[in-house]
Amino acid sequence: MPEKVIIIGSGPAGWTAAIYAARANLQPLVFAGRPKQTPSIILPGGQLMLTTEVENFPGFPEGISGPKMMSYFERQAVRFGTRIVTDEGLNPDVSNPDDGHSYKYQDCKSVDLSQRPFKVVGEDGKVFETHSLIVATGATANWLGLPNEMRLAQTGGGVSACAVCDGALPIFRNKELAVVGGGDSAVEEATYLTKFASKVYMIHRRDQLRASRIMQQRALSNPKIEMVWNSVVVDVLGDERISGLRLKDTVTGEERDLPVSGLFLAIGHTPATSFLKGQLELDEKGYVKLRDPGRSFTSVEGVFAAGDCADTIYRQAITAAGMGCRAAIDCERWLADQGIH
Ligand SMILES: Cc1cc2nc3c(=O)[nH]c(=O)nc-3n(C[C@H](O)[C@H](O)[C@H](O)COP(=O)(O)OP(=O)(O)OC[C@H]3O[C@@H](n4cnc5c(N)ncnc54)[C@H](O)[C@@H]3O)c2cc1C
Fold first, then answer.
1. Would residue 309 show up in a list of annotated catalytic residues for this protein?
2. Which of 11, 119, 151, 335 lies 20 to 30 angstroms, CA to CA, from 55?
3. What predicted TM-score, i.e. pTM, was given to this entire model?
4. In 3D, which of 240, 234, 270 has the Cα closest to residue 253?
5. CB atoms within 10 A of CB 241
6. Catalytic: 249?
7. What's the CA angle centered on 137, arms 193 and 83, to 5 degrees?
8. What is the pLDDT of residues 163-213, one digit of tens each?
9. What are the tens digits of pLDDT across the range 270-282?
10. Structural domains of the chain sorted by starting position, each given as residue range(s) with its CATH number in brackets
11. Gap from CA of 47 to ligand 1 centroid (Å)
12. How close is the Cα of 54 to the center of ligand 1, in Å?
Protein backbone atom coordinates (compact mmCIF):
# COMPACT_ATOMS: atom_id res chain seq x y z
CA MET A 1 0.00 0.00 0.00
CA PRO A 2 1.42 3.42 -0.87
CA GLU A 3 1.86 5.93 1.92
CA LYS A 4 -0.69 8.73 2.00
CA VAL A 5 2.03 11.33 2.51
CA ILE A 6 5.79 11.37 2.87
CA ILE A 7 7.46 14.43 4.37
CA ILE A 8 11.12 15.17 3.62
CA GLY A 9 12.78 17.34 6.25
CA SER A 10 12.69 17.67 10.03
CA GLY A 11 13.00 21.38 10.71
CA PRO A 12 10.11 23.57 11.90
CA ALA A 13 8.39 23.15 8.49
CA GLY A 14 8.69 19.36 8.32
CA TRP A 15 7.64 18.63 11.90
CA THR A 16 4.74 21.10 11.74
CA ALA A 17 3.52 19.48 8.53
CA ALA A 18 3.85 16.11 10.30
CA ILE A 19 1.85 17.28 13.34
CA TYR A 20 -1.01 18.50 11.13
CA ALA A 21 -0.90 15.49 8.79
CA ALA A 22 -0.78 13.05 11.70
CA ARG A 23 -3.72 14.74 13.42
CA ALA A 24 -5.63 14.48 10.11
CA ASN A 25 -5.10 10.69 10.24
CA LEU A 26 -2.67 10.61 7.31
CA GLN A 27 -0.02 8.64 9.28
CA PRO A 28 2.84 10.64 7.73
CA LEU A 29 6.23 9.09 7.12
CA VAL A 30 9.17 11.46 7.62
CA PHE A 31 12.66 11.39 6.16
CA ALA A 32 14.36 13.46 8.86
CA GLY A 33 17.84 13.54 7.30
CA ARG A 34 21.24 12.16 8.34
CA PRO A 35 23.58 14.44 10.33
CA LYS A 36 26.45 15.66 8.16
CA GLN A 37 29.15 18.28 7.72
CA THR A 38 29.47 19.52 4.16
CA PRO A 39 31.23 21.88 5.34
CA SER A 40 28.06 23.39 6.79
CA ILE A 41 26.71 21.25 9.59
CA ILE A 42 23.27 19.81 8.79
CA LEU A 43 21.34 18.02 11.52
CA PRO A 44 17.94 16.40 11.91
CA GLY A 45 15.93 19.21 13.49
CA GLY A 46 17.29 21.65 10.92
CA GLN A 47 18.98 25.02 11.20
CA LEU A 48 17.83 25.68 14.76
CA MET A 49 20.06 22.85 15.95
CA LEU A 50 22.89 25.34 15.39
CA THR A 51 21.58 28.02 17.69
CA THR A 52 21.72 28.12 21.45
CA GLU A 53 18.94 30.60 22.13
CA VAL A 54 15.66 31.13 20.26
CA GLU A 55 13.98 34.23 21.66
CA ASN A 56 11.46 35.04 18.94
CA PHE A 57 9.35 31.88 18.67
CA PRO A 58 6.03 32.64 20.40
CA GLY A 59 5.17 30.52 23.41
CA PHE A 60 8.56 30.57 25.11
CA PRO A 61 8.63 33.83 27.10
CA GLU A 62 12.06 33.10 28.56
CA GLY A 63 13.49 31.82 25.25
CA ILE A 64 14.46 28.22 24.55
CA SER A 65 17.49 26.46 23.10
CA GLY A 66 17.09 25.54 19.43
CA PRO A 67 17.80 21.79 19.92
CA LYS A 68 15.34 21.60 22.83
CA MET A 69 12.61 23.30 20.83
CA MET A 70 13.14 20.94 17.91
CA SER A 71 12.99 17.90 20.19
CA TYR A 72 9.57 19.19 21.36
CA PHE A 73 8.44 19.53 17.73
CA GLU A 74 9.59 15.97 17.02
CA ARG A 75 7.93 14.46 20.09
CA GLN A 76 4.68 16.25 19.30
CA ALA A 77 4.70 14.86 15.74
CA VAL A 78 5.45 11.32 16.96
CA ARG A 79 2.78 11.55 19.67
CA PHE A 80 0.12 11.75 16.96
CA GLY A 81 1.43 8.81 14.94
CA THR A 82 4.21 10.22 12.73
CA ARG A 83 6.72 7.56 11.68
CA ILE A 84 10.38 8.28 10.91
CA VAL A 85 12.64 6.37 8.50
CA THR A 86 15.65 5.08 10.44
CA ASP A 87 18.31 2.41 9.89
CA GLU A 88 16.32 0.21 12.27
CA GLY A 89 12.69 0.65 11.24
CA LEU A 90 10.02 3.32 11.36
CA ASN A 91 9.16 3.88 15.01
CA PRO A 92 12.15 5.24 16.93
CA ASP A 93 11.86 6.09 20.61
CA VAL A 94 12.18 9.89 20.64
CA SER A 95 11.54 10.42 24.35
CA ASN A 96 15.19 11.21 25.14
CA PRO A 97 16.61 13.87 22.82
CA ASP A 98 20.16 13.22 24.05
CA ASP A 99 20.40 9.48 23.35
CA GLY A 100 21.64 9.90 19.77
CA HIS A 101 18.58 8.28 18.19
CA SER A 102 18.52 10.88 15.44
CA TYR A 103 21.91 9.68 14.18
CA LYS A 104 20.03 6.72 12.71
CA TYR A 105 17.69 8.91 10.66
CA GLN A 106 17.99 8.60 6.90
CA ASP A 107 18.26 11.05 4.05
CA CYS A 108 15.93 10.78 1.11
CA LYS A 109 18.30 9.99 -1.73
CA SER A 110 16.03 10.50 -4.72
CA VAL A 111 12.42 10.80 -5.85
CA ASP A 112 10.58 9.78 -9.00
CA LEU A 113 7.64 12.10 -9.50
CA SER A 114 7.01 11.06 -13.12
CA GLN A 115 4.57 8.32 -12.18
CA ARG A 116 1.87 7.74 -9.56
CA PRO A 117 2.15 6.73 -6.86
CA PHE A 118 5.41 8.66 -6.49
CA LYS A 119 8.56 6.76 -5.58
CA VAL A 120 10.80 7.97 -2.75
CA VAL A 121 14.14 6.26 -2.20
CA GLY A 122 15.93 6.15 1.17
CA GLU A 123 19.66 6.11 1.76
CA ASP A 124 19.67 2.32 2.07
CA GLY A 125 18.00 1.97 -1.35
CA LYS A 126 14.61 1.07 0.06
CA VAL A 127 11.80 2.42 -2.15
CA PHE A 128 8.63 3.85 -0.63
CA GLU A 129 5.54 4.62 -2.69
CA THR A 130 3.37 7.59 -1.78
CA HIS A 131 0.29 9.39 -3.06
CA SER A 132 1.64 12.78 -2.00
CA LEU A 133 4.85 14.43 -0.91
CA ILE A 134 5.74 17.44 1.23
CA VAL A 135 9.22 18.87 0.63
CA ALA A 136 10.58 20.72 3.68
CA THR A 137 14.32 20.35 3.27
CA GLY A 138 15.32 23.90 4.22
CA ALA A 139 18.05 26.17 2.95
CA THR A 140 21.35 25.92 4.75
CA ALA A 141 23.05 29.18 5.68
CA ASN A 142 26.49 29.25 4.08
CA TRP A 143 29.41 29.32 6.53
CA LEU A 144 33.09 29.91 5.90
CA GLY A 145 33.84 26.39 7.11
CA LEU A 146 36.53 27.40 9.64
CA PRO A 147 36.79 25.03 12.64
CA ASN A 148 36.68 27.81 15.27
CA GLU A 149 33.78 29.47 13.50
CA MET A 150 31.65 26.32 13.69
CA ARG A 151 32.71 25.58 17.29
CA LEU A 152 31.69 29.05 18.50
CA ALA A 153 28.46 29.01 16.45
CA GLN A 154 27.34 25.79 18.13
CA THR A 155 28.23 26.83 21.68
CA GLY A 156 26.66 30.28 21.75
CA GLY A 157 30.08 31.88 21.46
CA GLY A 158 28.94 34.88 19.43
CA VAL A 159 29.05 33.51 15.88
CA SER A 160 25.81 33.37 13.89
CA ALA A 161 24.42 33.26 10.38
CA CYS A 162 21.21 35.15 11.15
CA ALA A 163 21.19 38.75 12.39
CA VAL A 164 17.39 38.97 12.65
CA CYS A 165 17.45 35.83 14.81
CA ASP A 166 20.37 36.59 17.10
CA GLY A 167 21.26 40.29 16.78
CA ALA A 168 19.12 41.39 19.72
CA LEU A 169 20.77 38.97 22.18
CA PRO A 170 22.38 40.78 25.15
CA ILE A 171 25.86 39.48 24.22
CA PHE A 172 25.86 41.69 21.12
CA ARG A 173 24.54 44.92 22.64
CA ASN A 174 26.83 47.95 22.46
CA LYS A 175 29.62 45.77 21.10
CA GLU A 176 31.73 45.94 17.95
CA LEU A 177 30.51 43.27 15.54
CA ALA A 178 31.49 42.03 12.08
CA VAL A 179 29.42 40.96 9.09
CA VAL A 180 31.01 38.94 6.30
CA GLY A 181 29.52 39.42 2.85
CA GLY A 182 28.99 42.04 0.18
CA GLY A 183 25.52 41.47 -1.26
CA ASP A 184 22.14 42.98 -0.49
CA SER A 185 21.47 40.61 2.38
CA ALA A 186 24.86 41.42 3.96
CA VAL A 187 23.92 45.12 3.91
CA GLU A 188 20.50 44.29 5.37
CA GLU A 189 22.11 42.26 8.17
CA ALA A 190 24.73 44.93 8.91
CA THR A 191 22.13 47.71 8.95
CA TYR A 192 19.90 45.66 11.25
CA LEU A 193 22.81 45.05 13.63
CA THR A 194 23.51 48.79 13.95
CA LYS A 195 20.34 48.97 16.10
CA PHE A 196 22.22 47.10 18.83
CA ALA A 197 25.94 47.31 18.12
CA SER A 198 28.29 50.21 18.82
CA LYS A 199 29.91 49.55 15.44
CA VAL A 200 29.60 47.03 12.59
CA TYR A 201 32.53 46.13 10.35
CA MET A 202 31.51 44.83 6.92
CA ILE A 203 34.23 42.51 5.71
CA HIS A 204 34.35 42.00 1.97
CA ARG A 205 36.88 40.25 -0.22
CA ARG A 206 36.77 42.92 -2.93
CA ASP A 207 37.08 46.72 -2.97
CA GLN A 208 33.41 47.33 -3.68
CA LEU A 209 30.12 45.77 -2.65
CA ARG A 210 28.12 43.40 -4.86
CA ALA A 211 24.93 44.89 -3.41
CA SER A 212 22.54 47.01 -5.50
CA ARG A 213 23.39 50.70 -5.73
CA ILE A 214 20.72 51.73 -3.24
CA MET A 215 21.88 49.15 -0.71
CA GLN A 216 25.53 50.17 -1.22
CA GLN A 217 24.51 53.73 -0.46
CA ARG A 218 22.70 52.58 2.67
CA ALA A 219 25.81 50.83 3.98
CA LEU A 220 28.29 53.52 3.01
CA SER A 221 26.25 56.34 4.54
CA ASN A 222 25.59 54.59 7.85
CA PRO A 223 27.95 56.13 10.45
CA LYS A 224 27.98 52.91 12.47
CA ILE A 225 29.16 50.76 9.53
CA GLU A 226 32.85 50.65 8.64
CA MET A 227 33.91 48.84 5.47
CA VAL A 228 36.89 46.48 5.61
CA TRP A 229 37.77 46.02 1.94
CA ASN A 230 39.89 43.34 0.27
CA SER A 231 39.80 41.09 3.30
CA VAL A 232 38.91 37.49 4.11
CA VAL A 233 38.52 35.86 7.52
CA VAL A 234 41.09 33.11 7.99
CA ASP A 235 40.40 32.35 11.66
CA VAL A 236 37.96 33.20 14.42
CA LEU A 237 39.69 33.98 17.72
CA GLY A 238 38.48 33.26 21.26
CA ASP A 239 37.91 30.29 23.56
CA GLU A 240 34.38 30.38 24.98
CA ARG A 241 33.43 33.67 23.30
CA ILE A 242 34.68 35.27 20.13
CA SER A 243 37.34 37.91 20.81
CA GLY A 244 38.33 38.77 17.27
CA LEU A 245 39.00 37.76 13.69
CA ARG A 246 42.23 37.02 11.87
CA LEU A 247 41.94 38.75 8.51
CA LYS A 248 44.03 38.27 5.38
CA ASP A 249 44.41 41.07 2.84
CA THR A 250 43.42 39.64 -0.56
CA VAL A 251 45.83 42.05 -2.33
CA THR A 252 48.97 42.02 -0.17
CA GLY A 253 48.49 38.67 1.63
CA GLU A 254 49.21 40.37 4.96
CA GLU A 255 47.41 39.13 8.05
CA ARG A 256 46.09 41.19 10.97
CA ASP A 257 43.72 40.71 13.92
CA LEU A 258 40.49 42.68 14.29
CA PRO A 259 38.95 42.63 17.78
CA VAL A 260 35.16 42.02 17.65
CA SER A 261 32.55 40.55 20.01
CA GLY A 262 30.34 38.98 17.36
CA LEU A 263 30.51 37.58 13.84
CA PHE A 264 27.58 37.28 11.45
CA LEU A 265 27.91 35.40 8.18
CA ALA A 266 25.86 36.83 5.31
CA ILE A 267 27.21 34.89 2.37
CA GLY A 268 23.98 33.35 1.18
CA HIS A 269 21.94 30.20 1.62
CA THR A 270 21.93 26.90 -0.25
CA PRO A 271 18.54 25.21 -0.59
CA ALA A 272 18.79 21.45 0.04
CA THR A 273 17.01 20.56 -3.17
CA SER A 274 19.69 19.12 -5.47
CA PHE A 275 18.03 15.68 -5.33
CA LEU A 276 14.86 17.24 -6.84
CA LYS A 277 16.50 18.59 -10.01
CA GLY A 278 14.61 17.46 -13.09
CA GLN A 279 11.66 16.30 -10.94
CA LEU A 280 10.26 19.57 -9.64
CA GLU A 281 10.49 23.14 -10.92
CA LEU A 282 13.22 25.01 -9.04
CA ASP A 283 14.37 28.61 -9.49
CA GLU A 284 17.89 29.48 -10.65
CA LYS A 285 19.20 29.28 -7.06
CA GLY A 286 17.51 25.94 -6.38
CA TYR A 287 14.52 27.14 -4.34
CA VAL A 288 11.31 25.17 -5.00
CA LYS A 289 8.95 27.27 -7.11
CA LEU A 290 5.45 27.59 -5.64
CA ARG A 291 2.61 27.79 -8.17
CA ASP A 292 0.83 30.42 -6.14
CA PRO A 293 2.63 32.52 -3.53
CA GLY A 294 0.83 32.06 -0.24
CA ARG A 295 -0.05 28.42 -1.00
CA SER A 296 2.12 25.30 -1.05
CA PHE A 297 1.40 23.77 -4.48
CA THR A 298 4.44 23.05 -6.64
CA SER A 299 4.84 22.31 -10.35
CA VAL A 300 3.79 18.69 -9.75
CA GLU A 301 0.27 18.00 -8.54
CA GLY A 302 0.36 16.17 -5.22
CA VAL A 303 3.75 17.61 -4.28
CA PHE A 304 3.78 20.44 -1.75
CA ALA A 305 6.66 22.53 -0.41
CA ALA A 306 7.13 24.33 2.89
CA GLY A 307 9.71 26.35 4.77
CA ASP A 308 13.04 27.81 3.75
CA CYS A 309 13.44 25.53 0.70
CA ALA A 310 10.63 27.58 -0.88
CA ASP A 311 11.20 30.93 0.85
CA THR A 312 13.84 33.39 -0.32
CA ILE A 313 12.59 36.22 1.88
CA TYR A 314 11.71 35.48 5.51
CA ARG A 315 13.60 32.30 6.47
CA GLN A 316 12.41 32.22 10.09
CA ALA A 317 11.28 29.30 12.24
CA ILE A 318 7.79 30.73 12.68
CA THR A 319 7.29 31.31 8.94
CA ALA A 320 8.66 27.84 8.17
CA ALA A 321 6.28 26.30 10.72
CA GLY A 322 3.39 28.29 9.21
CA MET A 323 4.28 27.04 5.75
CA GLY A 324 4.41 23.47 7.10
CA CYS A 325 0.88 23.90 8.42
CA ARG A 326 -0.29 25.23 5.04
CA ALA A 327 1.33 22.34 3.16
CA ALA A 328 -0.30 19.72 5.37
CA ILE A 329 -3.75 21.32 5.01
CA ASP A 330 -3.34 21.71 1.22
CA CYS A 331 -2.14 18.12 1.04
CA GLU A 332 -4.98 16.72 3.14
CA ARG A 333 -7.58 18.50 0.97
CA TRP A 334 -5.88 17.39 -2.23
CA LEU A 335 -5.83 13.77 -1.03
CA ALA A 336 -9.51 14.03 -0.07
CA ASP A 337 -10.28 15.25 -3.62
CA GLN A 338 -8.58 12.06 -4.87
CA GLY A 339 -10.75 9.98 -2.52
CA ILE A 340 -7.82 9.24 -0.17
CA HIS A 341 -8.66 9.83 3.49
C1 LIG B 1 22.53 30.26 13.20
C2 LIG B 1 21.07 30.39 12.94
C3 LIG B 1 20.25 30.85 13.96
C4 LIG B 1 18.89 30.98 13.74
N5 LIG B 1 18.12 31.43 14.76
C6 LIG B 1 16.78 31.60 14.56
C7 LIG B 1 15.96 32.11 15.60
O8 LIG B 1 16.43 32.44 16.70
N9 LIG B 1 14.63 32.25 15.33
C10 LIG B 1 14.07 31.93 14.11
O11 LIG B 1 12.87 32.08 13.93
N12 LIG B 1 14.84 31.46 13.11
C13 LIG B 1 16.18 31.28 13.30
N14 LIG B 1 16.96 30.83 12.28
C15 LIG B 1 16.33 30.51 11.00
C16 LIG B 1 15.61 29.16 11.13
O17 LIG B 1 16.52 28.22 11.65
C18 LIG B 1 15.09 28.68 9.78
O19 LIG B 1 14.30 29.67 9.19
C20 LIG B 1 14.24 27.41 9.97
O21 LIG B 1 14.98 26.41 10.62
C22 LIG B 1 13.75 26.89 8.61
O23 LIG B 1 13.02 25.74 8.85
P24 LIG B 1 12.83 24.62 7.72
O25 LIG B 1 12.03 23.55 8.35
O26 LIG B 1 12.32 25.23 6.48
O27 LIG B 1 14.30 24.11 7.37
P28 LIG B 1 15.48 23.57 8.28
O29 LIG B 1 15.35 23.97 9.68
O30 LIG B 1 16.72 23.92 7.55
O31 LIG B 1 15.30 21.98 8.21
C32 LIG B 1 15.49 21.28 7.03
C33 LIG B 1 15.57 19.81 7.36
O34 LIG B 1 15.59 19.04 6.17
C35 LIG B 1 16.48 17.96 6.32
N36 LIG B 1 16.90 17.53 4.98
C37 LIG B 1 17.52 18.23 4.01
N38 LIG B 1 17.71 17.46 2.92
C39 LIG B 1 17.16 16.25 3.21
C40 LIG B 1 17.06 15.03 2.50
N41 LIG B 1 17.52 14.86 1.24
N42 LIG B 1 16.47 13.98 3.12
C43 LIG B 1 15.98 14.09 4.38
N44 LIG B 1 16.05 15.23 5.10
C45 LIG B 1 16.65 16.28 4.52
C46 LIG B 1 17.61 18.53 7.17
O47 LIG B 1 18.30 17.52 7.83
C48 LIG B 1 16.81 19.39 8.15
O49 LIG B 1 16.36 18.59 9.19
C50 LIG B 1 18.33 30.66 12.47
C51 LIG B 1 19.14 30.17 11.45
C52 LIG B 1 20.50 30.04 11.67
C53 LIG B 1 21.38 29.54 10.58
1. no
2. 151
3. 0.92
4. 234
5. 14
6. no
7. 130
8. 999 999 999 999 999 999 999 989 999 999 999 999 999 999 999 999 899
9. 999 999 999 999 9
10. 3-140+269-337 (3.50.50.60), 143-265 (3.50.50.60)
11. 3
12. 13
